[in-house]
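Dear U.,

Please find below the material for section 3 of the report. The protein was modelled together with flavin-adenine dinucleotide; I have listed the sequence and SMILES used, followed by the predicted complex structure.
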Amino acid sequence: MKILHNVSLLPFNTFKMNVKAKECRIIEDENELLKIDTLSQNSLVLGGGSNVLFTKDYDGIILKNELKGREIIDESEEEILLNIKGGENWHSVVMWAVENNWNGIENLALIPGTMGAAPIQNIGAYGVEIKDVLEYVRFYHFDTKSFETIKNQDCQFAYRDSIFKRSLKNKVFITDVGLRLRKKNHQYKLDYGNIREELDKRNIQTIRPKLIAEVVMHIRQTKLPDPNVVGNAGSFFKNPEVSEEVYWRLKEKFPNIVAYSIGNNKYKLAAGWMIEYCGFKGYVHKGAAVHTRQALVLINQKNATGKDILELANIIIDKVNQVFGVILEPEVNIIG
Ligand SMILES: Cc1cc2nc3c(=O)[nH]c(=O)nc-3n(C[C@H](O)[C@H](O)[C@H](O)COP(=O)(O)OP(=O)(O)OC[C@H]3O[C@@H](n4cnc5c(N)ncnc54)[C@H](O)[C@@H]3O)c2cc1C
């Protein structure tokens, strides 16, 4: 296991926070996990660092997931079951799948980060979530000191949520994920964002997963800031879920509010719309700012510290609460 001391985390987080960690262990072989005692408050598993905000130097041990490998476990005419190691880059996995005409994750193209982190917040975009194709998650449990596998139905998947953010938080290191993709008769999800409009513009007759991935990548590139150019972690806040009663009360006061029904008498409100309504699009606070094209994304505009970003987030939370009576929750993991 490679161990680095007093290491800069700048290359390891997409918000581009220039903080240091006391120690960083690069995990390239899962057996190295057996040598680690426990995941205390002072250690953190890190994938691509695209969903974290470091607010200060990290006074502990970073376990950087570099487990690599992709394997076909089972295959029929209809489906294929893949085992992907946790340190694999998610977008590369998507590209591998679409090149092979394996369907199911094409809408999730260009989401940064690793395979191992994808189940944690049940990554989703354009009407698809990882839970739709995930078969199992394998992890090392630091309490039981053993490798365990849990099936999809035991992962407690919900919107940007799973058991890994709840009872298994800070207890496990995800080593592998099983994905079941379709080779035939796949129901594409095209009615989200501008996917169908873009396909029509390109006059596409026969739909292939690669074409959808390309369209999704194009849409994302026009809407979201590239973390290689400007530091960010994608959507900073979750879209809040409210009861039907709250929704109709808001709808009366704000007729243009963007929301959709999610069943069970609940509605999901578009946090980006509420933030924009409060006038925050392009708003600057110290080195941090609200992105000019997508108000849900906070950016490191000019050497922002984690504190600057957090202050900006709190200014937004307070204002949105004042105006709408709704409390926004960060989607990004705040590490401090
Ligand atoms: C430009 C941009 C766009 C984005 N768009 C989307 C989007 O459309 N949809 C979406 O859902 N997300 C999106 N995200 C967020 C992010 O890409 C995902 O949350 C991604 O899954 C994070 O992967 P990561 O490897 O970078 O995780 P990290 O940021 O490294 O870690 C995230 C959390 O998971 C934990 N963790 C990471 N790996 C493991 C592991 N192997 N075992 C146990 N715990 C682990 C970490 O401790 C941390 O708490 C976007 C981010 C950016 C920067």
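For the text of the report, you could mention the following: The pocket of flavin-adenine dinucleotide is lined by residues 14, 44-52, 65, 86, 111-114, 116-118, 120-121, 123-125, 172-174, 224, 227, 232-234, 333 (CB under 6 Å).

Regards,
Y.
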